[in-house]
Amino acid sequence: MPKSSDSPSSLSEAIAKLEDASGSKVQDFKEILEKDYQKIRQALDDLKPHLEDLKQSVESEVKNSKNKVEEKVKESPWVALGVVGLLAFVIGWILGGKRRD
Length: 101
Hints:
The protein is mostly helical. The protein has a domain at 11-75. The protein has 2 helices and no strands. The longest helix is centred in the middle third of the chain and has 65 residues, at 11-75. It is elongated.
């Protein structure tokens, strides 16, 4: 049997108790979210230097690869043109074969 102090004596008292209870739960939830946000923010700040290093290494690899491809194309442009033509034919054949089915 509930205690007499726990049971509200009127509807307005019951609503007030519900508002108080929900307000504290909202505040607890807000505090948890703020703590989690701070942890995520710290993790991102810790990752930032590593991501910058990764970005720089990827950029340098892409530049090196681009330079190598340009050198090969300058050495033998007809071979490069043939490879591009062959790739275009194969892609067209694959995509065109799906439409025939």
